[in-house]
Amino acid sequence: MQITVNGEPREVQGPLQLPQLLAELALPAYNGVAVLLNGEVVRRSDWPQTTVNADDALEIVRATVGG
Amino acid sequence: MDQPLKIGSETFSSRLILGSARYPNHDVMLKALRASGAELITVAIRRVNLDDPTGENLVSLLRRENFRLLPNTAGCYTVRDAVITAELAREALETNFIKLEIIADEDTLYPDAEKLLEAAQILVSKGFQVLPYAIDDPITCKKLEDIGCVAVMPLGSPIGSGMGILNPYNLSIIRSKVSLPLILDAGVGTASDVALAMEMGCDAVLTDTAVAHAQDPVLMAEAMRHACLAGRQAHLAGRIPRKYFADASSPREGLIDTRRKAG
Fold it and tell me: Which pTM value belongs to this model?
């Protein structure tokens, strides 16, 4: 299925759970990230129960240098 | 002995807050942050680079050295973007501190006061400790206090301009109207700007570019530390009032008589 991650189209096997997707993107144990799914912030505690479906749009962010 | 600085639930012994952006590299950044004595460091929230997802992790770099992080909403032009960015920052960093910035215009990077007040209200109601980057306008700053922000952060001059404190009178008025921690944010060009802000009664100063873009960022960071402390001490010591005429410091009594002997 096709999804959009950080503005780029991406092909993944799915539907799948959010932690699985993060693992596929090589972001497994990285606890500094946050996820926006179709315009809604996914609380960390909700990650395991969150399913990523076809045509979903995700933003995956972290902290970087800033003023 | 000075009181520690209390912002919301957090206490700091340093009254300097530094940004982490615009340094030549992470090594210089870390050296400068250490030299500054700052404990609170601002960071931005941006997309993960999926081509290098395990790349250098700024957060662990900073936390390893016990810096506390203040995420910002830099780059946001709308209330929705700012609120979502704050929520993402809270998830990513497990802090409810947020430096709220809503920019109105690319050339001035001035805050949009109307949207700032709306977003601050929403974030306070969602349990955030909000530090809003504001125009140096006493009315907006007072409203931000009334909304329940934990500090107000008026600008001295536009972000990155290095123009210092363009309207010191407004800053004085804000100081007299607002009892929250008052943090000068933006416009610092060099150490004297930091000293002046602190002398005027600001509780802290936030700067980034003035250190990061200095020819020697580490030395400038150290200068900022001294300036912040000097300004704070001068404020606590209480400066003399300004007068238009001279006021001799040496005693008037006991002056010698150099007239030649009458003859």
Answer: 0.92
DSSP string, chain B: -PPPEEETTEEES--EEEE--S-SSHHHHHHHHHHHT--EEEEEEEE--TTSTTS--HHHHHHHTT-EEEEB-TT--SHHHHHHHHHHHHHHH---EEEE--B--TTT--B-HHHHHHHHHHHHHTT-EEEEEE-S-HHHHHHHHHHT-S-BEE-SSSTT-----S-HHHHHHHHHH--S-BEEES---SHHHHHHHHHTT-SEEEESHHHHTSSSHHHHHHHHHHHHHHHHHHHHH-PPPP-SS----S-STT----PPPP-
Instruction: Find out whether B98 and B129 touch, Cβ atoms under 8 Å.
Output: yes
Q: What is the complex's ipTM, to 2 decimals?
A: 0.94
pLDDT per position as a tens digit, B187-239: 999 999 999 999 999 999 999 999 999 999 999 999 999 999 999 999 999 99
Whether B92 sits inside 8 A of A65 (CB atoms) is: no
* pLDDT tens string B108-119: 999 999 999 999
CA distance B79 to B17: 25
Rounded Cα gap, residues B62 and B45, in angstroms: 15
Give the closest-approach CA distance of B53 to chain A in angstroms.
6
Alpha-carbon gap: A19 to the closest alpha carbon of chain B (Å) = 15
